[in-house]
Amino acid sequence: MSATTMTTMTRTMSISATSVRRARTTTRRTCGAKTRAMVDAAADDATAETTAAPTVAVDLGVLSDERFSCLRAALDAAELTSAIAGATAENALTVFAPTNAAFARASAERGLAFEELASRENLGDILKHHVVSGAVKSTDLPAEGRVKTLGGRELNVKVASGSASVDGVAVSEADIQVGSGVVVHVVDEVVFPAFSINAKIQTPQEILAFEGWAPEVVNGRVAMIGFVLAVLGEISTGESFASQVGNNFGEVVHTSFVWSLASLFPAFSSNEGYEANPFKMAGSKEWEFVFRGCPPWLAVKDRLSPEVEQLNGRAAMVGLTSMFLLEALLGHALFSFA
Question: Average pLDDT, whole number, for the chain?
Fold first, then answer.
C-alpha cells in the first residue's frame, strides 16, 4: 500500500471521527436524547479506530451552523458525513439542505420523533434524495424539469420569478458554496422520496371541516351516484325520487355510508406517502411515481380532473334537489314513461 493511499484513508477516517464528535455537541439540545446516544456511540467507535491517526479539521461551512444540527446528526447516523466533507471540485456535490425547523415540521406532520426518523433503515436513501452529483447552481437548474439524485430517483425542479423549488418544496437560500466541492441550497422541508415515509397526519377535524376538501367531495360523489340511480329507478319503476328513497331507505343509507367511507378511509390511512385529497393527489410524488407514463392515465387526466369531478358533483347535488322539489309539486316522477 502506497504512502499516498495510507494518507487518504487516514484523512477520511479522521474526517468521519471529527464530524461525529462535532455532531455530539450540536445535537444535544436540538435533536433528542436517543439521537445523542446514537451519535455518542458512533463517536466512541470512530475515536477508538483512529486513536493513532492525526486529527484533520473538517470545515462543513454553512452546514456547521446550529440550524443544521439535525441534518448533521442524520448524516452521521447514515454514515454519510465523510462523503459530504470529502467532496472536491472534481467530484462536486449539490446538497438541498433541510434546516432543524424542516425536520421539526416533518416530525409533526408525519407523527415521527426525530430519533425515529434517524433510526429508519431507509434514512440513507432519504438523505441521498437531497444530494445531486455535480456543482449545480440555481442558474443551472431548468425552468421546469428533473434532476437525478444520488439515491437514484429524480427531483422535480421548477424555477419561476427567481425562486426555485424541488418536489414542491421552496428553496429559501441558494448557491452557498462550501469549500470547493459542495453547493448548498437551503430548503424549507425535508424532501422525502415517494413511498419512503408514512403519509402526513390529518385529524378528522381537518378532513371534515366545512372549509376542508372532504365534505363537498364526498357529498358530490354520493349525489352523482344517487342522481344516476334515481333516474334509472324512475325509468324502470315509474316511482318518484322521494318514493324510491322511502321504499328503499335502508339501501340508500347503506350505499351512502359505504361510498362515504370509501372516500374518507384513505385520508385516515398512514400508508407510505398516500395522498387522499383529490386536489393534491395528482401532484403528489406517489401518484406521479405510479402513473408516470401510463397511457390510459395520460389520456384522461385532463378530462377527469378533480375540478371536473367537483363540477359534476355540484351539478348532481343541484339536480337531486331540483328533482325532489319538482316531483313534489307535480305529484309524479319526471322520468316516468308509463
Answer: 78
| C-alpha cell read off for 292 | 408516470
Residues 42/72, Cβ–Cβ less than 8 Å: no
Task: Give counts: helices (H), strands (E), the chain.
Answer: 15, 7
Give the pLDDT score at 202: 67
How far apart, in whole angstroms, are the C-alpha atoms of residue 55 and residue 29? Answer: 26
User: For 287-302, how does the pLDDT look when each residue is reduced to its tens digit (9 = 90+)?
Assistant: 766 666 677 777 777 7
Most distant CA pair in the chain, distance: 100
Helix (H) or strand (E) holding 226: helix 214-237
CB 58 within 8 Å of CB 85: yes
Give percent of the chain above pLDDT 90.
37
Amino acid residing at 39: V
Beta strands in the chain (DSSP E): 93-98, 131-133, 144-148, 154-160, 163-166, 169-178, 182-187
pLDDT of residue 310: 87
Only one residue has cell 357529498, namely 219
Which residue, 72, 52, 54, 53, is CA-closest to 62? 72
AA letter at 220:
G
3-state secondary structure (DSSP) of residue 144 = strand
- CATH 2.30.180.10 residue spans of the chain: 3-187
pLDDT classification of 274: cutoffs 50, 70, 90: low
Q: What is the DSSP string of 28-82?
A: TTTS-HHHHHHHHHHHHHHHHHTTTSPP-----GGGGSGGGHHHHHHHHHTT-HH
Distance between CA 252 and CA 260 in Å, rounded?
A: 12
Beta bridge partners of 164: 159
Between CA 34 and CA 193 the distance in angstroms is 25
* Fold observed for domain 3-187: FAS1 domain (2.30.180)
